[in-house]
Every structure is written in structure tokens, then in C-alpha cells.
Amino acid sequence: MLNDEEKLVDLYIPRKCTATKNLIKAKDHSSVQINVGLVDASGVYTGEFETVAFCGEIRENAKSDDAFNRYAINNGLMKDL
């Protein structure tokens, strides 16, 4: 929520799992958030990044690697082989 001065005042901002689109609960201690740095055509880091989050259920079932690759291909971060 934003206050009158347009500052963020929420103490907890829930995240969504990139693979399942479900909310990641506050007590899901096996969840991860990964910031992927973006590069330009010459391979130099641009200072920007995309955030990817996976819930513990995806990680426990050993599906996070596949989900990350699928996300990277769909968003143009990686080429499909």
C-alpha cells in the first residue's frame, strides 16, 4: 500500500511462484528468489534484472531447473536448442 507521500508502507509483500503462479507463503522456507542480470548485445551487464521466484513445492519435486529453463526460453533470456 502507498501512503500520501507515495511511499511503500507494507511490511510484507507476498511473492508469486513463477512456475505455478501460486502465492508463496511467508513460512515457505524452502522457496527461492533469483535475480537474473540482463545483458546487451555485446554481453555487458545493463544494470537491469528480472526476478524469478520458486516455491518450495517445485524445489522439493526437483522441477525448478526445468521451470527456470522454460521461463528463460519464453522470455527471451535463453535460446531454445
Automatic annotation (TrEMBL):
- Keyword terms: Ribonucleoprotein, Ribosomal protein
Query: Could you tell me the superkingdom of the organism this chain comes from?
Result: Eukaryota
Note the Gene3D superfamilies from the entry.
3.30.1230.20
Question: In its UniProt record, which GO terms are filed under biological process?
Answer: translation
May I have one GO cellular component term?
ribonucleoprotein complex
Which GO MF term does the entry hold, naming one? Answer: structural constituent of ribosome
The answer to whether UniProt assigns keyword Ribonucleoprotein to this entry is yes
* PANTHER family named among the record's database cross-references: 40S RIBOSOMAL PROTEIN S21
Write out the similarity annotation: Belongs to the eukaryotic ribosomal protein eS21 family.
Q: What is this protein called?
A: 40S ribosomal protein S21
